[in-house]
Structure to design on (919 residues):
């Protein structure tokens, strides 16, 4: 069989549109990203790890990944409950509530950042209340987690909601007719079937949280070793003209993101193979 | 186990899905609920299962072996329900699907692991799927999924087996095979079974008894022979097999079909003569008895029988089915005037069977 | 309809939890959304107007705020059309033809979503900055990209790059090529086919992509922050202006500008809902 790059088609414009796509992709995305790769290779392995293993950098990684993990986990629990509410329960004005869920996507991160900082600051609306019961949010790691919950909030909801909508109610009827109680139907049938979208939503929320900057820096306090996230550290390094250091951190973060995306794709194709009806 | 339904009605908003149904399903029988879509047959099945609630009414009652189950929920009713699209749990293997009903039993009634294993293997043998235990539903064909759905329903040793359009989603060949297989299975198990279908052939072939339904009401209950040969209503006759309709009118106690009547919409004083295509003989002359004039329009000889299409006096299409043998004797010519003689026919007037005299 | 409040959307017996469980779910869901979504929105509006309407107006018509608004509009006016053209070209090539390496290209198009905002800015600094690849050459020819408007535009184009394409590619793949082939067989030219057959079929998907792309282009903060240089009145977009004002403890002005962006977000959500509704109901 001879190698054919493209299957024949009567539609015109293939060469032009593909050529333009590749040119634009190359100039806007691939060229700048390759600058990152080249710059980090200038560092060499030794230099790369020397930057990454610096205590301040390590602390920021621990904070960034830890807070992102907690935030994504919180979103799994509450996101699933919100999705259930949106799909399964009658409530007036549900369409407005449904639209509002996307606000964290639509609101510029700087705006959410100052709003959350104001809300949870020691003299802010929620801050005063939480302070009175001994919880300090602003300028702590908890504050960072709160901001990351906010920006990751829509992901789990938006992956679980359609899955729940499309879930065949016959499955629940079948479980019930076989003698399962409501709790058994929930834990043995519904939740296992929702696992793939829940995991996808978790991963997306986590990936977004790891790279988040705008909504975090206002509430974080940005104390080195304590409340300094990785993204902020990149900017700090840049301001000190430490391009190499900034690049090393960026590459480490990018590798984690790419690994996550790879993982999620593998998982989806695996679950797709088994779980298509 | 016998099932009795008393005064069962169901409304969805303004729509009356079921209108005061009274019926008894005999123990050990295989009954078909037959009717067009929207006739209420699936709703009736779901009410028996407890998946749907009948309208609340003091006289309404559902009895399993003369015990009322009206208020018991679906997961306490012990009915085996086979869903039209199987509703297999796609995150479980075939084995886990079948074991599900045993594993969700309350702890004190739950069989041991070994017992569950034995039971599932027994059921897999019964549905001839022993080698498929480890597969996922996505790896099975439609017919195989249907068998697993059935095995899963049987695992809980149901008092009654309910099947919603069990062969509806399968292609013709698998369908015919599975039909015979279901009948055989019923003959070995003898569990009271009810299945819903819109396919009259399926009902006639598989069921012990057929309940013909239309617009939320029961038209006729009877054996396949009874409903086919002695249809109680015009609907039953029309629904079970092809039928030719000749229009006439009622005039002083007799139904007249031998003249052209205007086909008015109202059914007052109109009569219909129903004849199955294989109950008509074609003659070139009127002969002695009653005969209906018609013109040969088309002849289809490719097939096991010969189909002759004719046009009657009202410009309506008439179908006659002949064996190749009798077609060769009749010598039908295209566009020729011929006379149709009904060997067997039924007359209906004003929605009821007409028992009076009629003239063809 | 109010008798249905808190009842399950599906009324079949035996499947639904009792009312008390529905109530608990509703309280938790609404409480969560209120704490994390509604409250921040309310606080923006409240703080913005806390010192009165006139001060709000003064804050957003102040010289630097207006210049930030102009820059934000300019950046969106470049980034959205550029990515629109790209999205149409990419989806035509990738959705209407079958060729080798297609899925790799689709993965590459999604890449900017995997790159965090700050890193998106960083890569342009590495490319065009003073110590970057092209920095020395640009310096000799007196061209400034980083810490100037071109850098802001480039970083914005990068972060909004996938929005329209990834909306259109699955949509156009799903629609197949039958209608285009029919149009061509009826004598339409390639361009006529695209304009009269393809474009009307994807108009809502296109709108959706444009709305999301525009919202991100106007609201991007991290990437722009890295390449902007924060020169007041020159290289500050609205989100950057918010940051500057907030860090100067000028909360009223910061929230006034923020309220503009919050308004944009609300308009985006409304348009998005309308488009979603249109797609669902034809």
């Amino acid at each position: 069989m001879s190698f054919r790059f493209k299957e024949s088609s009567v539609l015109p414009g293939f060469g032009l549109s593909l050529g333009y796509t590749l040119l634009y992709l190359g100039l806007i995305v691939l060229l700048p990203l390759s600058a990152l790769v080249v710059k980090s290779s200038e560092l060499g392995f030794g230099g790369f790890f020397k930057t990454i293993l610096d205590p301040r950098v390590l602390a920021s990684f621990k904070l960034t990944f830890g807070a992102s993990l907690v935030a994504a986990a919180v979103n799994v629990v509450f996101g699933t409950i919100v999705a259930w509410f949106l799909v399964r329960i009658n409530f007036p004005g549900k369409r407005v509530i449904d639209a509002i869920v996307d606000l964290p996507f639509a609101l510029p991160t700087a705006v959410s950042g100052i709003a959350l900082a104001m809300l949870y600051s020691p003299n802010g609306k929620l801050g005063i209340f939480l302070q009175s019961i001994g919880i300090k949010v602003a300028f702590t790691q908890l504050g960072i987690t709160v901001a990351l919950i906010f920006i990751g909030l829509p992901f789990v909801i938006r992956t679980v909601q359609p899955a729940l909508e499309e879930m065949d109610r016959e499955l629940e009827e079948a479980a019930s007719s076989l003698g399962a109680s409501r709790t058994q139907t929930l834990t043995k049938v519904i939740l296992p079937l929702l696992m793939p979208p829940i995991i996808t939503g978790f991963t997306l929320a986590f990936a977004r949280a790891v790279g988040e900057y705008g909504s975090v820096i206002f509430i974080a306090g940005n104390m080195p070793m304590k409340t300094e996230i990785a993204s902020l550290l990149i900017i700090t390094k840049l301001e000190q003209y430490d391009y190499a250091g900034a690049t090393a951190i960026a590459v480490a973060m990018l590798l984690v993101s790419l690994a996550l995306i790879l993982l999620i794709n593998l998982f989806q194709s695996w679950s797709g193979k088994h779980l298509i009806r | 186990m016998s099932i009795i339904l008393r005064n069962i009605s169901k409304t969805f908003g303004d729509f009356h899905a079921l209108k005061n149904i009274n019926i008894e399903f005999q123990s050990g029988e295989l009954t078909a609920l037959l009717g067009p879509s929207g006739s209420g047959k699936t709703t009736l099945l779901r009410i028996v299962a407890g998946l749907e609630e009948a309208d609340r009414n003091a006289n309404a009652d559902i009895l399993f072996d003369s015990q009322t189950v009206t208020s018991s929920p679906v997961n306490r009713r012990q009915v085996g329900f086979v869903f039209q699209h199987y509703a297999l749990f796609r995150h479980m293997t075939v084995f886990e699907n079948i074991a599900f009903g045993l594993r969700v039993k309350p702890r004190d009634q739950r069989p041991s692991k070994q017992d569950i294993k034995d039971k599932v293997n027994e059921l897999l043998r019964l549905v001839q799927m022993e080698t498929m235990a480890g597969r996922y539903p996505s790896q099975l064909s439609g017919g195989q999924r249907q068998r697993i759905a059935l095995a899963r329903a049987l695992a809980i040793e149901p008092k009654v087996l309910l099947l919603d359009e069990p062969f509806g989603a399968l292609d013709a060949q698998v369908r015919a095979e599975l039909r015979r297989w279901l009948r055989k299975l019923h003959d070995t198990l003898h569990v009271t079974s009810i299945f819903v279908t819109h396919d009259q052939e399926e009902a006639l072939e598989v069921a012990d008894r057929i309940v013909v339904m239309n617009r939320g009401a029961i038209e006729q209950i009877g054996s396949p022979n009874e409903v086919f040969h002695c249809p109680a209503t015009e609907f039953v006759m029309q629904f079970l097999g092809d039928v030719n309709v000749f229009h006439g009118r009622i005039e002083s106690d007799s139904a007249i079909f031998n003249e052209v009547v205007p086909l008015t919409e109202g059914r007052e004083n109109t009569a219909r003569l129903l004849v199955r295509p294989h109950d008509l003989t074609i003659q070139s002359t009127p002969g002695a008895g009653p005969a209906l004039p018609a013109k040969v329009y088309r002849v289809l000889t490719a097939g096991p029988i010969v189909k002759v299409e004719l046009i009657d006096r009202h410009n309506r299409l008439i179908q006659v089915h002949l064996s190749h043998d009798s077609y060769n004797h009749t010598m039908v010519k295209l566009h020729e005037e011929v006379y149709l003689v009904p060997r067997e026919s039924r007359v209906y007037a004003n929605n009821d069977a007409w028992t009076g005299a009629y003239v063809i | 309809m109010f008798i249905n409040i808190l009842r399950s959307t599906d009324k079949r017996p035996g499947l639904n939890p009792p009312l008390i469980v529905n109530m608990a779910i509703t309280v938790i869901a609404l409480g969560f959304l209120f704490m994390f979504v509604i409250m921040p929105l309310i606080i923006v509006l409240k703080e913005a107007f806390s010192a009165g309407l006139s001060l709000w107006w003064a804050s957003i018509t102040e010289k630097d705020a207006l210049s930030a608004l102009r820059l934000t509009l300019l950046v969106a006016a470049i980034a959205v059309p550029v990515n629109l053209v790209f999205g149409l070209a990419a989806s035509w090539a990738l959705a209407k033809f079958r060729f080798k390496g297609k899925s790799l290209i689709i993965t590459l198009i999604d890449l900017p979503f995997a790159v965090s905002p700050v890193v998106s800015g960083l890569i342009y600094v590495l490319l065009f900055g003073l110590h970057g690849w092209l920095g020395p050459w640009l310096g000799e020819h007196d061209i400034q990209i980083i810490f100037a408007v071109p850098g802001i535009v480039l970083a914005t184009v990068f972060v909004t790059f996938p929005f329209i394409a990834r909306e259109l590619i699955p949509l156009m793949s799903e629609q197949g090529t039958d209608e285009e082939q029919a149009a061509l067989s009826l004598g339409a030219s390639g361009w006529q086919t695209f304009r009269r057959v393809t474009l009307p079929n994807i108009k809502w998907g296109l709108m959706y992509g444009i709305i999301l792309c525009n919202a991100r282009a106007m609201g991007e903060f991290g990437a722009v922050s890295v390449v902007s240089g924060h020169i007041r009145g020159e290289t500050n977009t609205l989100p950057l202006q918010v940051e500057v004002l907030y860090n100067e403890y000028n909360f009223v002005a910061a929230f006034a500008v923020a309220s503009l962006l919050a308004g944009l977000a609300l308009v985006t959500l409304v348009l998005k809902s309308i488009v979603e509704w249109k797609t669902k109901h034809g």
